[in-house]
Amino acid sequence: MELEKEPAARQETAVRRETAVRQAAPAEGCLVTAIRLPVRIIALVVVVPVRMLWDALVWIGRVLRDTVLRPVGRALLWLCKALFVWPFVALWRYVVVPVGKALGWLGHVLVVVPFVWVYRYVLTPLGRGIAWLARGVGSALAWLGRLLVVVPCQWLYRYLLAPVGRGIAWLARMIATGVGFTLYWTARILFVLPALAVWRWVLAPVGRVLAVIGREVWDALKHAWRIAGYVSRAVGRFLGTLFRWILVEPLRWTYRTVLTPIGHVVRDVVWRPVAGAARAVGRATRQMLASARASVRQARADVRRMLFGAPKQPETRRRVDRGEPVHQETRTLGSSTTALTKD
User: Nearest Cα to 199, choosing from 188, 208, 212, 190?
Assistant: First the structure.
C-alpha cells in the first residue's frame, strides 16, 4: 500500500508545483499559446521511446552490477591485493624498512658524525674569519662606490634627467589626450551607435522570441519526460505481470503439483532404499576391511615372533622388605591387631 501511495503523492506534488508556477507566471500572449501545444505533442512522441529505452537500460545495468560487475570487481580487488599489495607490503615491512634502518644508522655513523665534526671544528672558525675579513673589505668598497658612483648619478638624475623627463611626459600626455578624444568619438560614431541600434531593434526582439521558444521547448521536454516515466512504469508493470503469469506461475504450479510429488515418490521408493542398501554395503565393507586388517596384523605378529622370538617382558621390581607391615596388617583403631586386643 505504501508503494502504491508514493507515486500518487509524488504526482500530486508535481501537479501542485506546476499549478503554482503557472499562477505565478505573468499573462502570456497568443504566440506562446500557439507554440506550446505542438511542441508538447512532438516532445511527448519523441521522449516516450527514449524514456522507455532509458528505464530498460537502467534495469539491465542494475542487474549486471549486482550479478556480474560487483562479484567480478571483488574478485579482481582480492587478486590485485594478493598479487601486488601484500607482496609489496611484506617486502616493505620485512626487507626495505630493516635495510633502510641499517643504512640510516651506517650513514649517520660514517657520514653525518664526521661532517658535523668537520663543520663544528673546521668550517665554522674558518667561515667566521672569512666573514670578518669580508666585512672590513666590504665597508671600504661601499664607501668608495658611494663616493665615485652614487653621488654623481644622483646629481645627474636630479638636475638633468628629471626636468627632461617631465617635459617629455607633459608633451606625450597632451598628444595622447587629443588623439584619444578623436579616436573615442570616431569609434562611438562608427561602431557603438550602430551596435546599439542593432541590439535594440534586431537582436533583442529576436532573443525574446527565441527565449520564449526555448522555454516552451524545455517545459515541454520536462512534461513529456514526466509523462514518459508514468508510461514506462505502466509498461514495465504490465510486462512484469505478463512474465509472471506466462512463465513464473506455470513453473511454480508445475513445481508444486508435479515435480514435488514425483520427488517425494522418488525419495521414498528409490532413494531411501538405495541409500539404506548403500549404508548396509558400506558397513559390511568396513567390517570386512577391519577383519582383514586384524588378520594381517596377527599374521605379521606371528611372522615376527617366528623370526625374532617373543618380545622380552619388562622386569618387575622386587619389593624390599623393610620390616614394615603390609596393607592387610596395618594398625587401625577399629581393628583388633594391636598388642592389647590381640587374641
Answer: 208
Burial of 225 (0-12, 13-18, 19+ CB in 10 A): middle
pTM score: 0.38
Domain positions in the chain: 43-285
- Which residues are CB-contacts of 48 (< 8 A; sequence separation ≥ 6)? 224, 227, 228, 231, 232
Q: Residue 9 has what pLDDT?
A: 66
Residues 82 and 294: their CA atoms lie apart, in Å, by 50
pLDDT tens digits, 151-204: 888 888 888 888 888 888 888 888 888 888 888 888 888 888 888 888 988 898
What gap in Å lies between CA 109 and CA 105, rounded to an integer? 6
What is the separation of C-alpha 330 from the centre of its chain, rounded to a whole number of angstroms? 84
Output the DSSP codes for 189-223.
IIIIHHHHHHIIIIIHHHHHHHHHHHHHHHHHHHH
Contact at 8 Å (CB) between 203 and 23? Answer: no
